[in-house]
Design goal:
This protein is α/β, with parallel strands linked by helices and about 270 residues long. Helices cover about 40% and strands about 10% of the residues. It has a single domain, classed as Queuine tRNA-ribosyltransferase-like (TIM Barrel). This is DeoxyPurine in DNA protein A domain-containing protein.
């Protein structure tokens, strides 16, 4: 199991060799490119894109071009997320959720699933050489099973994929519903990646995941004073804090699962 530290600081790639998770948009205006010292994966930024705009503004070809530039200048990444469509209520219905405003796509869960699968197929046809991972979307166990069927009908063997992203479970990860979804998808034999998994979620279902990522360290640091000896207002952008938090997450996993969280186990 590989745990990626999610960050918005792309220069961290040259500062550490722990697995990192970054959005593709962080390289959009890059002039200086930092060569990765360790493994990393690329997020498409879908949650914020759909939250703020209600649709994908970047075309699949533009996204593929961006992924190629990253691969060329930064080095080979483990995998990249597609331009998937989350199925969370806030993303679909829109409105105020948790103090944030969501534009809303005003589409159905089924439509989001179809668009997710169609985008993956298009991206893979445009760039079969790039490591673009399929993502399963849904809001209930039957819905996720339906998404699996859509991939199967399209000729995609999810069991043969090195990574299969599990979308829309970030806010459910520590609940019974979230655990049921992860368990059902893991039963298929998929090598699952859990987006945005934190301590409680990893304690419950981390042993069923091939990898996971989290950016929770930043908001955690923002609510606390800086580390001793640090002069900034808080450590929300601090690699020292992020690495310490990451180790704390790994150490919180029950002993029998810790061997699944090593940095290089998937290398």
């Amino acid at each position: 199991m590989r745990f990626y530290l999610t960050t918005h600081k792309r220069h961290w790639l040259r500062w550490t060799d722990v697995p990192l998770f970054l959005k593709s948009e962080h390289w959009d205006r890059a002039i200086k490119w930092d060569v990765a010292q360790g493994p990393y994966a690329v997020d498409s930024g879908g949650f914020m894109e759909l939250k703020d705009k209600g649709a994908w503004m970047r075309t699949p070809r533009q996204y593929v071009d961006s992924l190629r530039r990253i691969w060329e200048h930064v080095g080979p990444y483990d995998w990249a997320a597609p331009q998937d469509w989350m199925c969370e209520k806030a993303i679909i219905e829109g409105g105020w959720f948790g103090g944030q405003y969501f534009v809303g796509t005003h589409l159905s869960v089924a439509e989001h699933q179809c668009r997710t699968v169609e985008n993956f197929l298009e991206l893979r046809s445009l760039a079969p050489e790039l490591r673009i991972a399929p993502v399963i979307q849904g809001d209930t166990v039957p819905a996720y099973e339906h998404c699996v069927e859509l991939y199967e009908k399209a000729g995609v063997d999810l069991r043969a994929e090195p990574v299969v992203g599990l979308g829309s479970v970030c806010r459910l990860q520590s609940t019974r519903q979230g655990a049921a979804i992860v368990t059902a998808m893991a039963a298929h034999g998929f090598k699952l990646h859990g987006f945005g998994f934190k301590i409680l979620g990893l304690q419950r279902v981390g042993h069923l995941l091939a990898s996971a990522d989290s950016a929770a360290w930043s908001s955690h640091a923002r609510r606390r004073p800086p580390m001793p000896g640090h002069t900034h207002k808080n450590c929300a952008n601090c690699i020292d804090y992020a690495l310490k938090w990451r180790q704390r997450v790994i150490n919180s996993i029950p002993t029998h699962q810790q061997t699944l969280l090593t940095d290089r186990s998937a290398a």
